[in-house]
Amino acid sequence: MNQNVRIMDYAIRGTISERADEIEKELLKGEKKPFNKIIRVNLGDCHAVGQIPITFLRQLLATCTYTELLKSSSIPSDVKERAKIILQSCTGGSVGSYSTSSGIDVIRQHVAKYIEKRDGHRAYTDNIILCAGVAEGFKTILKLFKAGVDCKNPGVMIPVPQFPLYTATLTEYGISRIPYFLKESNFWSLDMDHLKDQIKIARSYCFPRAIVVINPGNPTGQLLTRENIEDLIRFAYKERLFIFADELYQDNVYDSKFFSFKKVMIELGEPYNKMECASFMSASKGYTGECGLRGAYIEVFNMDTEVKEIYKKLLNTSLCSPTLGQVAIDAIVNPPQKGEPSYDLFIQEKTKVLGDLKIKAKMVVDAFNSYDGFKCNPLQGALYAFPKITLPPGALKKAEKKKILPDVYYCKKLLEKTGIVTVPGSGFGQEEGTYHFRTTILPPVEVLQEMLKLFQSFHKQFFERYSKYDI
Amino acid sequence: MNQNVRIMDYAIRGTISERADEIEKELLKGEKKPFNKIIRVNLGDCHAVGQIPITFLRQLLATCTYTELLKSSSIPSDVKERAKIILQSCTGGSVGSYSTSSGIDVIRQHVAKYIEKRDGHRAYTDNIILCAGVAEGFKTILKLFKAGVDCKNPGVMIPVPQFPLYTATLTEYGISRIPYFLKESNFWSLDMDHLKDQIKIARSYCFPRAIVVINPGNPTGQLLTRENIEDLIRFAYKERLFIFADELYQDNVYDSKFFSFKKVMIELGEPYNKMECASFMSASKGYTGECGLRGAYIEVFNMDTEVKEIYKKLLNTSLCSPTLGQVAIDAIVNPPQKGEPSYDLFIQEKTKVLGDLKIKAKMVVDAFNSYDGFKCNPLQGALYAFPKITLPPGALKKAEKKKILPDVYYCKKLLEKTGIVTVPGSGFGQEEGTYHFRTTILPPVEVLQEMLKLFQSFHKQFFERYSKYDI
């Protein structure tokens, strides 16, 4: 048994989530609980908690799949035109054929145009790779950094807290993680002095090769300022690091402005505009929330020619990403334009999703900040809140007795008393002695309101009980 | 750079296929060639060469995706009923939500029932994993066998010739391959004495952990007899090998009967019915040919409980396979039944695809066996012919001069003169001093006829030229 596989774990689908599955079954069997349903806010799984699919996207998928719909009057003409263009770019005119391993050509062209429009700088189809989700895409590129003859012990810098799939993949590949902590007291921003210290320490035990940045942050919800991005680029240049820019939540931005790493790299000019970078984006989040379709894209930027060739060879062994996930990406990068029949409904649906998220982002943060012992940074982007909880000493002692981490104990109690499923902060990493949990802001406004009410009363009882606890 | 990645290659999408892409562009630019189109028989990519999608499957996908179709009179009621059942099993009622990492529950139940019906033995939903293609599924299980503390140097037996993704994955994972040759002179059957010799040799340099069997064979097209399967199971038991049964082409069987490894294991009784096995099946081949959707399933059988737990943890890090690929699997394992509105068209379409393949299987083999220097075993299953060619000495000398393998030289010449894209036998492995190539039998009958005519005249000229060649 491969040890790297054995020790790997993925907190988001860990014990709390498994216990929630059991409870759901117990409820179905009629067992008495202090609640009558499970509220899942552990996964960024938009449709699972009621987000409505974008009609235009679903019509495009259905038409590409069942081409009789090209003749149907119920499908708008702009959808049909797009479907025809995509099908022409599929070998044999069918989404049932393999695409090239980088993806359907015309969709990659649309992605390049979309990025050009976003950044105001050229993007090249040859640099676009369609993939089955960001995790999948990250894994394929990371493989290039695994230990080899020319580097016995590679390391990759990752933020703490961070999306646990990054840690899991590094563990699986036997690559050293070099943690850098986001500064909670300054809105989860980057502290460059700390990064410099961390890489210095790391050089004593490994060879740093790359850095992962998540912007907007998951689970932390911050948006990096342009200045922060510039600092990080300069740092990566000096330390010769490949930049993995997880920009998955670029459409989930509230009040602030998103800058892509590539845009900033280009605008910093020489030598930074020659640096290597990979940027990730997906159909799973944003306003579409199509997690199940497994559609994502990567833009690789300035990748070394020889490495790129090997990268493409590696992609070939996975044949291709699911074509319908690719079509979902097309819907995002080539949306209805003003004057087209799908435009009004599309804008209405998109605005509704993003507008609601903005309301919910504020609602959740405000609520949490009103609880004793809670401190939650404002949510500038992404779909999660990650509040800090100061746990009463009694709770710490109880957790120790039960031999589980205090944040896990808190989240377990929360689940058993209210049915709310969260992820303990230890799953993402947190500074020692601090405790957090992650919740999504995805459920509909009224469900979220109900959840916050349950949460508040649980928290009050928990605090009362464990403040009194005999310590 | 990871060396295992650097040396990995995937012949099917290798240099010949890349040259075909270039030629296609040259043709578009108006360059003169001895042919006016490329005929791709290198990839088992059914729809790419004109196979028509199964209407029932596409309607089911479209309805699950665009649920307004549940109200449409153009979708048959049995499709709608199935779509509703699937959607009920999706969290939030949407294919846009993540499924569990093993797949949508109701589809896994349908798979188990389907296997029960096929084999006449119990199958359990808990043992079914839906995955994004067989290669993907194989990789995840193989990870469990990577070098670890308890086994420094694992090895896996693989057939030669074999589907090159197996070799590529072993290389990538740094697992030793233990080749066993299929006996071409006896219809590519298994020679058990040879397998015993090979594992004996292998034990001097690695620790054999598993064996891969491809049945029906790719690229070789044989179907293992029940006796052959029994022998292999006994051998695997004695040598304590996990069996990977690639049974992807179980629906593509001509004249003979397919037996699953699991069925034979159970019917052999103790101790064989306790052996560990994983069987793979997919929506990409069979009569559906939906390669682009990335839908497949695995049945794991008797997997060690502790290992299974780690396996499921590993699956969690990939979130889930594409839900629409999962729906394609449902269409296969839960097809229209007699009396249902979709039944007649479904049977008609399915029969047509499988009937044509049977005709083409014979047509290709007969044609090849009529050429000088060709010897092609009958095609009992799968979608490929893999004839042996005795190349004239002049061709061998020419290839040597060009520093390429003789079979590659032959396939390159074939491409440049006729536009036919095949895969050289060296990509799959072949006994030293023998030369082969693989062609699919997928193009429509009339295209295949045209191809065989072109092939014959090329082969005649090639033989005449290189028999005369000054050696």
Describe the structure.
Two copies of one chain form a homodimer. By secondary structure, the first copy, chain A, is α/β, with parallel strands linked by helices. Chain A folds into two domains: 3-33 and 347-468, Aspartate Aminotransferase, domain 1; 83-333, 3-Layer(aba) Sandwich (Aspartate Aminotransferase, domain 2), CATH 3.40.640. Helix content of chain A is 44%, strand content 13%. Chain A has 16 helices and 14 strands. Chain A has helices spanning 3-7, 15-28, 55-65, 77-89, 105-119, 134-143, 164-173, 192-202, 226-238, 261-268, 305-316, 323-333, 343-369, 393-402, 406-418, 445-468; strands at 39-40, 128-131, 154-160, 176-181, 207-214, 242-246, 277-282, 296-301, 374-375, 384-385, 388-389, 420-421, 423-424, 435-440. The first copy, chain A, has a seven-stranded mixed sheet, sandwiched between helices. The longest helix of chain A is centred in the C-terminal third of the chain and has 27 residues, at 343-369. Chain A is globular.
